[in-house]
Amino acid sequence: MAKRIAPEIAHALHTLRAQGRPIRELSRRLGLSRNTVRRLLRTAAPGDEAEPDASADPETLALIAEIFKRVGGNVVRLQECLHTEHQRALPYSTLTRWVREAELRGAPRRAGTYHFALGEEFQHDTSPHRVTIAGKTTTAQCAAIVLAFSRRLYLRYYPRFTRFEAKAFLADAFGFFEGTCPRCTIDNTSVLVLAGAGPEATIAPEMVAFGELYRVRFIPHHVGDPDRKARIERPFRYIEGNFLAGREFESYSDLNAQALDWAERTANAKVKRSLGTTPAAAYRLEQPQLQPLPEHRPPVFETLERIVDVIGFVSLETNRYSVPERFVAKPVTVHKHPEAVHIYHRARLIASHPRLLGQRDAKHTVPGHHTLPGRHRERRAPPPELERLTGEDERLDRYVAELQRRAPGRGVRVLRRLLEMKRTYPRDALLGALETALTYGLYDLARLETLILRRVAGDFFSLDLDPEPGDDDD
């Protein structure tokens, strides 16, 4: 804060400077630093401008009142609008004084001080922050909690903050502090509050049950009294201005790892004037007074029922996770953990995935779940019937090749029927019929069998068959 200089001294300073005295001499004679002398010389001499403490004229006050209402009471924007719209460059301190004179804003009220005993209270809140993850700037929810006595801070970031994330965050925070306080002051957000507002609000039953496990009561502050949890309100500006400034992150895991490291190395290692020491040092005094953690701390997860889709994936929060393809169209149970997804079928674990945080319409596939490429290769392999039909006679080889070319897929069905005919009928009759079929392009196996039966009719039995293609009619 700049030292206030009496008008007489400022006037003497300008007078001596006008006489050609150097700044070093002025500094020595007036008992001021050279930077202060330079600052005063850059301002107008007393009497050269209007008295800075003079009140505004009624027309100016009316203009200020009109703009003040338009900008929602923001004096910074009021100053900008006066300069850009009316070419009035006024100091911020003067504007705030005139705003009070016009009774647009009351004078600042004295703030009280809260005192907390060792291990008495947590304070918890969230705040949206703009962060850069994987080259993309997005809004992430910063959840933070602080011990009211020692000011030791813990924070994590989430793409969104629901009741599920609240329980996961608080469970991690209690483990970080290695104990709990009997009271946790929160705001009136619907994440934890079911109905009402203030200390008499109704907390959501699942959060009440969660708090009972750790022996913590969640108590919202009175509406319009955020100063009740000032111990957690103030760090958010410090997080934005110090931790996030100039940093980029690869993923939410990287963001949270760096946030925890920053909290321990910077926020919790900085000396607090009100404490006279660092939060880390004060925590060493407070930790023995915290309530011990329960012997068994169940993991935080959410259970959901899903049906595996026709391409072997389970959908969760717009993202998809693979399961073995034999479970297609079957019901499965999904356990959503803070950083993992486990999928069960009839109480048996069939797939585990890392949870895709901060992504939409993404897909995660475990190698080996989907074997369709391998099956395609199996279909392209030659059927065993082909080996048994080819390699014995050039006519049979040609017929098999043409028959397979015209058949759908690998032609297994027609090859099996031709192999059955080869095993059933005499070789000479089969080859003769094949030669006729190749000549006239007959690749219907029913017609081929008719040609074979015509050739064997005289040897085994008498058949009245249609004439072979190419024979002259009687």
Protein described:
The model is unreliable at 48-53 (pLDDT under 50). This protein folds into 4 domains: 7-101, no CATH class; 121-289, Nucleotidyltransferase, domain 5 (2-Layer Sandwich); 302-371, no CATH class; 382-460, no CATH class. The protein has 474 residues and is an alpha+beta fold. It has 17 helices and 14 strands.
Kindly list the characteristics that best describe this protein.
single chain, Nucleotidyltransferase, domain 5, 4 domains, four-stranded antiparallel beta sheet, elongated
Helix content: 40-55%
In terms of per-residue confidence, which ranges show pLDDT below 50 for 5 or more consecutive residues?
48-53
What percentage of amino acids are in beta strands? 15-25%
- The CA-CA distance between the termini, in Å, is 126 Å
What's the CATH H-level homologous superfamily of the largest domain?
Answer: Ribonuclease H-like superfamily/Ribonuclease H
- What is the residue-mean pLDDT, rounded to a whole number? 86
Please identify the structural class as seen in this structure: alpha+beta
Instruction: Look at the structure and give the CATH class of the largest domain.
Output: Alpha Beta
CATH fold type of the largest domain: Nucleotidyltransferase, domain 5
Shape category: elongated
In total, the number of domains comes to 4
CATH architecture of the largest domain: 2-Layer Sandwich
Count the strands? 14
**Largest sheet report:** 5 strands, mixed
The number of helical elements comes to: 17
Radius of gyration: 43 Å
